[in-house]
């Protein structure tokens, strides 16, 4: 059991100071912008909640939010089952385990803009490996700078390439923690592969899968660099996700007020959905 | 067993394809890249690598990145260790709320913070220093380090602490000479994740630097803007950014899976 000790606060203090410095001051700056209008020269005028109203009613915001939800939904629906399937078919011990793990983790260690640039080169219609293969070997007309569908497929494939390994590693960590005795018991009972998965493996992976789904949700919902480098939000606005749109407004048009209001709405949505996922997935533990 | 292993093999093949293409392209001449498709470099050249290793604006990008990433890893681990100890051993006022608040910092989109961060670090006079980037990355790395370390520390029985105190160890001596060596695998895993997330992040690093501490990833954007002409150079620079991560991951290969499974949710 843990003992009650208020002096433990002193241990947490450095963390608190450093994170608060980075989190609270910039957050207050954003809140400050979100209720004011500026015409430059550091002149600010009180605007109240005008920007929030404007953002919440704007079609542009709704469209970007819709694209963002679609993207995140596709990512979760593909990466989570795929990651589990790969983890299930991985060897449990022996020489190949570290080899698999190192190779699989490699995409996650590549800087995000390099990931975007790499996929850009990979997908170039005539000189990229993927582009060439699709256009000249399979005869599919593929050009992601022209065709929104191709751009979407490329962005989603890129993210699957980049982050499925995270799900694999987490699910695998859950799997190796299952004692052999469980499998032997299942074998004696004559359980099918499916019931082994459903009643032994899945419940044991539950806590790590909760982490996987939460992390994948947060990171895919906040994704910026990779799609920005890959497609720049195009063709047209077809792949302009929420954060790309936000940066366009904040730095491209320098509309600080609306951008700040949008940031706060964005943050609130992320928090709310994360909380929702967390509550639903840990509900059974509380009962 | 044999039939099953086809799935990981196919998956790893898929993962390696874009990486292969990047590496292959870095050894091609610009002419060859633009003239058409070739699966292997026809005229093998190291030109792009020579450019990177002889031009200070290129190789300083790597040095800058490595400096702030190392600095960030050091700071994150140093402050996360005592905090994780407090979370794993003691109950105190607001501990659960504090823990959750720390985790929420991972949810804030970096795009939201870019501009305020620029103003904050300009105001305190740290703009364009390695320390600025290292401190800014603490926002998402410290919570993660606390989370992972707390998980590892929870696996160490409390009797270890009590025995040490009975033997007359002071807290700092116990913590540094007994406790930290006990969880050194956890420290390794936490350091790996700090290194990884600081290394791959670009938006904040780019916003907080101009010349003196410019990261390699930002240096690369100068070729990206003229993509058609210097693809080979871009590919070579990209290839070189994979190497530090690959080295680090090799050292922690036996602990990665465990590190992920740790921590409470």
UniProtKB/TrEMBL annotation, chain A:
**Residue ranges of the ABC transmembrane type-1 domain?**
65-277
Give the GO biological process terms.
Answer: transmembrane transport
**Swiss-Prot/TrEMBL keywords:** Membrane, Transmembrane, Transmembrane helix, Transport
Q: How does it sit in the membrane?
A: Multi-pass membrane protein
Where would you find this protein in the cell? Cell membrane
A Gene Ontology term for the protein's cellular component: plasma membrane
Tell me where the transmembrane regions lie. 9-35, 69-88, 95-112, 118-138, 150-173, 256-278
UniProt-listed InterPro entries: MetI-like, MetI-like_sf, Sugar_ABC_transporter
Family classification: Belongs to the binding-protein-dependent transport system permease family.
What this protein is called in its record is Trehalose transport system permease protein SugA
This protein's species is: Shimia marina
Taxonomic lineage of this organism? Bacteria, Pseudomonadati, Pseudomonadota, Alphaproteobacteria, Rhodobacterales
The protein's gene is named sugA
TrEMBL record, chain B:
Bilayer topology reads: Multi-pass membrane protein
UniProt-listed SUPFAM superfamilies = MetI-like
Which locations, inside or outside the cell, does it occupy? Cell membrane
Pfam families in the cross-refs = BPD_transp_1
**PANTHER family this protein is in?**
ABC TRANSPORTER PERMEASE PROTEIN, MALTOSE TRANSPORT SYSTEM PERMEASE-RELATED
What family does this belong to?
Belongs to the binding-protein-dependent transport system permease family.
Q: What is this protein called?
A: Trehalose transport system permease protein SugB
What's the source species for this entry? Shimia marina
Gene that this polypeptide is encoded by: sugB_2
């Amino acid at each position: 059991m843990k003992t009650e000790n208020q002096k433990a606060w002193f241990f947490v203090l450095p963390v608190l100071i450093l994170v608060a410095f980075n989190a609270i001051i910039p957050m207050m700056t954003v809140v400050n912008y979100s209720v004011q209008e500026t015409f430059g020269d550091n002149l600010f005028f009180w605007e109240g909640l005008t920007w929030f109203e404007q953002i919440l009613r704007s079609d542009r915001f709704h469209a970007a939010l819709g694209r963002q939800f679609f993207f995140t939904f596709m990512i979760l629906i593909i990466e989570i089952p795929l990651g589990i399937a790969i983890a299930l078919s991985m060897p449990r011990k022996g020489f190949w385990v570290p080899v698999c793990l190192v190779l699989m983790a490699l995409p996650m260690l590549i800087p995000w803009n390099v990931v975007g640039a790499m996929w850009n080169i990979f997908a170039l219609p005539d000189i990229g490996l993927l582009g060439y293969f699709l256009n000249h070997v399979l005869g599919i007309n593929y050009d992601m700078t022209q065709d929104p569908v191709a751009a979407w497929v490329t962005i989603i494939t890129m993210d699957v390439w980049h982050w499925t390994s995270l799900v694999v590693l987490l699910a695998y960590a859950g799997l190796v923690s299952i004692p052999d005795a469980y499998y032997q018991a299942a074998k004696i009972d004559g359980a099918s592969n499916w019931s082994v998965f459903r009643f032994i493996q899945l419940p044991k992976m539950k806590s790590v899968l909760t982490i996987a789904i939460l992390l994948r949700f947060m990171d895919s919902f906040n994704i910026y660099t990779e799609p920005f480098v890959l497609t720049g939000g195009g063709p047209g606005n077809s792949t302009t996700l929420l954060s790309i749109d936000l940066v366009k407004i904040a730095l491209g048009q320098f509309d600080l007020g609306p951008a700040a209001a949008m940031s706060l709405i964005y943050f609130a949505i992320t928090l709310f959905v994360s909380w929702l996922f967390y509550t639903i997935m840990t509900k059974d533990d509380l009962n | 067993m044999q039939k099953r292993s086809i799935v990981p093999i196919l998956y790893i093949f898929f993962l390696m394809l874009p990486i292969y293409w990047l590496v292959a392209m870095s050894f091609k001449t610009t002419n060859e890249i633009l003239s058409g498709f070739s699966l292997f470099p026809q005229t093998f050249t190291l030109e792009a690598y020579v450019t990177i290793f002889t031009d200070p604006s290129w190789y300083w990008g790597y040095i800058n990145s490595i400096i702030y990433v190392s600095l960030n890893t050091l700071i994150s681990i140093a402050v996360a260790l005592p905090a994780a100890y407090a979370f794993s051993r003691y109950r105190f006022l607001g501990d659960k709320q504090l823990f959750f608040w720390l985790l929420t910092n991972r949810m804030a989109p970096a795009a939201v913070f870019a501009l305020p961060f620029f103003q904050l670090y300009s105001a305190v006079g740290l703009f364009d220093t390695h320390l600025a980037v290292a401190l800014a990355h603490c926002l998402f790395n410290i919570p993660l380090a606390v989370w992972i370390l707390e998980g590892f520390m929870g696996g160490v029985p409390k009797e270890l602490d009590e025995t040490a105190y009975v033997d007359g160890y002071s807290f700092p001596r116990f913590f540094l000479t007994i406790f930290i060596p006990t969880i050194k695998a956890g420290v390794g895993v936490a350091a790996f994740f700090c290194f990884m997330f600081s290394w791959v992040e670009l938006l904040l690093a780019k916003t907080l630097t101009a010349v003196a501490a410019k990261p390699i990833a930002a240096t690369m954007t100068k070729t990206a803007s003229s993509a058609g002409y210097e693809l080979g150079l871009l590919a070579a620079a990209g290839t070189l950014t994979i190497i530090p991560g690959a080295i680090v991951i090799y050292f922690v290969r036996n602990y990665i899976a465990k590190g992920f499974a740790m921590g409470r949710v």
